[in-house]
Design brief:
- The structure is a single chain.
- Helix 1 packs across helix 2 and helix 1 packs across helix 3.
- By secondary structure, the chain is mainly α.
- It is built from three helices and no strands.
- The protein has a domain of 59 residues.
- The model has no long low-confidence stretch (mean pLDDT 93).
Length: 94
């Protein structure tokens, strides 16, 4: 979704919440109405807008904590690595 929406994390989040094609349709409607591309004014549900607003608020809080030096530093940062699999596996046991 990041590539689909040119790295705009707000649109990616909205697409994850409401569906990629719902967001594409809303963007098309904005374009047809000669409106600027703006996640805040997309014609999608209030739930989708609320979800994005909460994520933005969380982002602001984390940035403020980092600026105040209140975030812990990790002694040994965790790194994710891809593991090649010989065959597909079932994940329902998780």
């Amino acid at each position: 979704l990041g590539q689909v929406f040119n790295g705009d994390w707000r649109l990616v989040n909205m697409a994850f919440n409401a569906g990629e094609y719902r967001i594409r349709r809303a963007l098309r409607q904005q374009r047809r109405a000669s409106q600027p591309r703006n996640a805040n004014t997309l014609a999608v549900s209030a739930i989708t807008h609320d979800h994005l607003a909460k994520l933005e608020a969380l982002s602001c809080w984390v940035l403020a904590q980092a600026a105040d030096g209140k975030l812990p530093t990790l002694a040994d940062p965790q790194v994710l690595v891809a593991l090649p699999l010989a065959q597909p596996i079932q994940l329902d046991f998780l």
